[in-house]
Design a protein that fits this description.
- Helices cover about 40% and strands about 20% of the residues.
- It is built from 13 helices and eleven strands.
- Helix 8 links the parallel strand 5 and strand 6.
């Protein structure tokens, strides 16, 4: 059997994929890049209905052999497979040492109105978060804690930034994500759905430990997380039902965004699960 024909670096498909490194082109085409076997695996598994999430897959010869199961599953799901020279995948990849697989995926975002209509119990809202690595990591934390959705406001980084996609470690494909939602609209919509909105801030007047002791954390909750450097602006904090700080019991100056988000989300998740168990007994 003849070897698969390699796609040319000057191919229109390679050029189109390369353009997806820029946010404006991602928004125009409603497509993004997913790099590495983990992201590709999750994209293949995500496909709802008859429309594949993974539209195209670029694979080096070595990666296609090592991950033959993924390539076969992608092809079976309707994905267009491109056998690519190492240089092509390296050019498209965002990492220093590419893993040989790079997918072109369609956008996954969910309408905010649909998230609210589903009556979520735990939501992470990213307001003014600009670092893609942090955004992806918070999304991963929300997924791990069992959150129902993540909302990125219009002042936040693009959820489909390659670094954000990579930092989410596949969680982008696991839970509903709404993007470009004004923070005022997000808070108002969640509040109208009976969700208690808490702003996470190191200078908050409420203490997370006290909230847990008071038993208020078992209610449906949305956590609003702010900018990595300067937190949440006063006008955003004013929208919340309470501004909550994670207590620092040691000598650390502060917690970074992703760590604080993990603590807050897991605190809510544990309280909600405890409350559910009590209600069943």
């Amino acid at each position: 059997m003849a070897a698969p024909e390699l796609i040319s670096p000057r191919s229109t498909r390679v050029t189109a994929a390369r353009r997806l490194a820029k946010r404006s082109f991602r928004a125009k085409e409603r497509r993004f890049l997913a790099e590495g076997p983990q992201a590709v695996r999750e994209a293949i598994a995500h496909a709802p209905g008859s429309t594949p999430t993974l539209l195209e897959l670029f694979a080096t010869a070595e990666a296609a052999e090592r991950h033959a199961d993924l390539v076969a599953a992608a092809r079976a799901g309707g994905t267009l497979i491109h056998h690519a020279p190492d240089a092509v995948v390296a050019d498209l990849a965002d990492t220093v040492t590419p893993q040989g697989l790079l997918g072109v995926c369609r956008f996954l975002d969910t309408r905010f109105e649909d998230i609210v209509a589903a009556r979520p119990r735990l939501v992470a809202v990213l307001a003014h978060v600009r670092d893609p690595g942090n955004a992806g990591t918070v999304l991963r934390c929300a997924d791990a804690a069992g959150a129902d959705a993540v909302v990125l406001t219009d002042a936040s980084v693009d959820a489909y930034n390659p670094k954000a996609v990579r930092a989410s470690a596949g969680s982008l494909f696991h839970l509903p994500v709404a993007v470009g939602v004004p923070v005022e609209h997000a808070v108002a919509g969640l509040a109208a759905a009976g969700v208690r909105v808490l702003a996470a801030d190191g200078a908050g007047s409420a203490d997370l430990d006290d909230e847990l002791d008071a038993g208020t954390m078992s209610a449906p909750t949305a956590w609003v997380f702010g900018n990595e450097a300067w937190g949440l602006p006063e006008e955003t904090r004013a929208l919340a039902d309470a501004v909550v700080r994670v207590p620092i019991h040691g000598k650390a100056e502060s917690l970074n965004l992703a760590t604080a988000a993990a603590v807050c989300l897991y605190a809510s998740s544990r309280a909600q699960r405890r409350g559910a168990r009590r209600n069943r007994s």
